[in-house]
Amino acid sequence: MEAPSSKKLCCTVCVHTVKSIPVIFILCILAWSYYAYVYHLCLSRVTSVELSVPYLLVYHIILVLFLWSYFKTIFTEPSGAPPNFRLPEEVFEEFNRNPIDLSRQSAILRDFAENLPIMTFTNTNDIRFCDKCKIVKPDRSHHCSVCRKCVLKMDHHCPWVNNCVSYSNYKYFILFLAYGLLMCIFVAATTIEYVIKFWDITTDMRIQDGSYKIHIIFLFFIASMFSLSLFSLLAYHIYLVSKNRTTLESFRPPKFLEGSDKNGFNLGCCRNIREVFGKEVLLWPFPIDTRLGEGVSFPINKTVPEAQSLLFSDVNDQKTSIDFEHYDTSLFTSILISDDNMSSTDTNAPKYQDLIQI
User: Fold this and answer.
1) Does the annotation mark 270 as catalytic?
2) Where do the Palmitoyltransferase DHHC domain residues begin and end (predicted)?
């Protein structure tokens, strides 16, 4: 019994080590860049105290914020579905008793999800269900094969942080990108002067020998290249935040009863930003938890025309979740489907009932 157990432990350690290679690579690059910038540039080449002190001060402030955001992104556990979304064993056995009978399985899931805040469905208007986790999937959640769980508001699994970017750490991830970009731009801007002098035949630096030149030159080019990649990635995620959309939803829009709608959760730019960063603007630059909601229920605003959502309605007195955003999220109730055989041609049947009860 000990041999298989030891073998399994060894395989687990190897898998975790391989997954950590991108993180180790980033930390090694960061350690070398710290040595090159602090020692070779600020302490060795910058002779003016008026320059070296501000350089070191700004660099270390950005570095602390970057590492704080990076480690928060790495070590924040992705939130899973609450226990009430998990099928009891007897219900799951009943669900799997006849796998061929899809209509019966759909009816079981609908009965179980009757009191759950479900607003999105499969392409066939069935309840989204994860057979591996044995749960009804909350809205915007997806199963991550790497984390081996259904993750709330999953954006993507990022190998550079060895973690799922999701509802739990999305703010930290964006700050990690922002401070990484800021640090690369600052390093490139403060080293370019010396890189140019190394190639200028009119300066003494060109004929001076020393390994510091290689470090500073490589530091400049690496910071410049990382700036380009981080800028494109940060710009894309800022766009997603402004639309209240995840990476997965940008490729596969969520399916509502009205149809697939990539703008279904779009509340308007300002409210979308508050969903991720919270209402306290002064806390936005810091990687602390200020997000709104609980990651299971998400407001749908049907009164914002610029959201271009299929859910938009021009009925002035229609109550929507954003109208009651100051209430506790436990007030959300499920979408009640009165008839499983409801015809799409039945114009009198309600397609989407109120999500809030006071």
Assistant:
1) no
2) 125-251
